[in-house]
Design brief:
alpha/beta; 6-stranded mixed β-sheet; 6-stranded parallel β-sheet; 10 helices; 20% strand; globular
C-alpha cells in the first residue's frame, strides 16, 4: 500500500516508456519488504534542472538517469563520485544533505557482472570494440581495475586515439592502445577478454556484427557484449564457435540497478536475491517460461 511513509525513487530520461528499471527496483522493494516505489519520469529537453530540484523538494530518495541526460545532469548536483567524474556520466542520484550526489553504477555493474562469471579484470589483456560513450566508460573502468592492456578498436581511429589519450592521462597509466578497426589483425597473438561496446547487433539487426573474421575470434577466451537483446548476438555466436565463453549485457543491466538500490537504501543485496530478479528480467525480455 502506498501512503505517506512510502519512499519514492525513479528514473529521469527521454524516452522512458520501455525501461526495465521499475521491474528491477519494485521487485527488490517487494522481496526485501521495503516501503518503496519506483516510477519512470519523462523529462523534456531543457527541464533537467527543474526535474532534479523538484525531486529534491518532493523528498525523492533517489533517481536513475538515462539518455540523453547522463552528462547534462552533472551540472545540477552538489557532489559527484570520483569514477563518475572521470567518466563524465552519471546514472544514479543519491539524496544527501543539500541536494543529490551523482554516481555511475553502469561500470561497477559491468565489473560485478564479470566477477560473477569468474572474470577478474586485474592483469587482463582486453580488446574493446567501439569508442562511443559506453566504450569510453568501459575504458575508464578497465584502467581503474588495473588491466594490463586494452586494445581499443574503432572505425574512426581518431576517436579511438582521443579516448585513449584521455583515459591514459586521467588514470596516469599508458594502458589504452588505440587502433583502427580494419587493423584488428594486428592485435598480437594471445587470449583476450573482448568487450563489445557498440550498438552493432542490437535488435532488430541481430545478424550484424562488427568483425566477421574468424581469425579474430580465435584470440578471444571470453566475449562480453553490452547488448542484451537479442540474448545471443552474432558476436557471441562467433566467440562460442571458436571455443570461447560469451555473455550478453543483461547482468550489467541487473547489477547497475542493484548497486543503485544499495546506495539509496544503505544495504547489500544478496546474490540469491540478485539471481531471482535476473530470472524475472529474462522472462520479461525473452518471454521464457
Amino acid at each position: 500500500m502506498i501512503d505517506g511513509n512510502t519512499k519514492v525513487c525513479g528514473l529521469i530520461g527521454n524516452p522512458v516508456e520501455h525501461t526495465l528499471s521499475p521491474l528491477i527496483h519494485n521487485t527488490l522493494a517487494k522481496r526485501l519488504g521495503h516501503h518503496l516505489v519506483y516510477v519512470p519520469f519523462l523529462v523534456e529537453d531543457g527541464a533537467v534542472k527543474s526535474a532534479v530540484d523538484g525531486a529534491f523538494a518532493l523528498n525523492v530518495l533517489g533517481l536513475n538517469v538515462t539518455v540523453p541526460y547522463k552528462g547534462k545532469v552533472m551540472e545540477n548536483l552538489v557532489q559527484i563520485d570520483d569514477l563518475a567524474e572521470q567518466i563524465g556520466a552519471v546514472n544514479t542520484l543519491v539524496r544527501c544533505g543539500s541536494g543529490f550526489k551523482g554516481y555511475n553504477t553502469d561500470m561497477p555493474g559491468l565489473c560485478r557482472a564479470l566477477t560473477r562469471e569468474g572474470i577478474m579484470l586485474k592483469e587482463q589483456e582486453v580488446i574493446l570494440l567501439g569508442a562511443g560513450g559506453a566504450a569510453r566508460a568501459v575504458a575508464f573502468m578497465c584502467a581503474s581495475q588495473k588491466v594490463k592492456k586494452v586494445y581499443l578498436l574503432n572505425r574512426s581511429v581518431d576517436k579511438a586515439k582521443a579516448v585513449a589519450e584521455e583515459v591514459n592521462r586521467k588514470s596516469g597509466r599508458e594502458c589504452i592502445c588505440p587502433m583502427a578497426l580494419k587493423d584488428h589483425g594486428k592485435v598480437p597473438d594471445g587470449k583476450f577478454l573482448a568487450i563489445q561496446a557498440t550498438s552493432v547487433g542490437l535488435y532488430p539487426n541481430e545478424k550484424d556484427v562488427i568483425i566477421e573474421d574468424g581469425a579474430f575470434y580465435e584470440k578471444i577466451h571470453t566475449g562480453y557484449d553490452l547488448v542484451y537483446k537479442p540474448g545471443t548476438t552474432r558476436f557471441m555466436e562467433l566467440v562460442k564457435s571458436h571455443g570461447g565463453e560469451a555473455y550478453n549485457g543483461l547482468k550489467m543491466l541487473l547489477y547497475q540497478g542493484i548497486i543503485a538500490y544499495e546506495l539509496w537504501n544503505g544495504i547489500s543485496v544478496s546474490e540469491e536475491m540478485a539471481l531471482q530478479v535476473y530470472e524475472m528480467l529474462e522472462r520479461e525480455i525473452y518471454h521464457e517460461g
